[in-house]
Amino acid sequence: MHRRFADRADAGRALAEQLKHYAQRGDVIVLGLPRGGVPVAYEVAQALGAPLDVLVVRKLGVPWQCELAMGAIASGDALYVDEELMREADVSKPEFERVLAGEKAQLARREALFRDPQRAQIDVAGRIAIIVDDGLATGASMKAAARALRARTPAPAKIVAALPVAPRDAEARIGSDVDEVVCVAAPEMFFSVSQFYADFSETTDDDVRAILARASPASGPAARG
Fold it and tell me: Could you tell me which residue ranges the Phosphoribosyltransferase domain spans (predicted)?
């Protein structure tokens, strides 16, 4: 089994090594998926000398097993639904709509929380957008995030999914939505992202806000108000 990362910062530094060909380029931006992906993304952005922003994503959990993703939503009304899983789990349309409404409210809340007036959204037009999470399980969140970026006008020139750990079939799961998948470890025995971290304690909203405050502000030609 691949060694466990000490924590998300350690994972971010390991991931940055795999992305060093993108270092010190003016056309690269790093987007962390809140909440757990943000501390990983911070280390990547610092190592690459790239601006950091967040791309808010909310998993749509099966009502009676919320950790099992039947889809995800992201900023900009992007939606991914795993129709096959919904059929297997026997989730009805009203049940799905209730989960969707609740997660849309949470997404709006987090957008307001993380996107304060002093922090403009980074413009992705024509740039290389590196989407970072702390790991990949179903791929739902990453697919929704990538679709959100594709839907922007103008869209990024390239979308890279960057992950410390993911299942062996990660590229098959998300490859149709991104241009490149970069992963530190893709172990054969994969049960959960947390098994590859010594410290996988929860990242809070306050943690995300503090990390964004430490990061270089989005300014100049990379930002838009």
Answer: 9-200
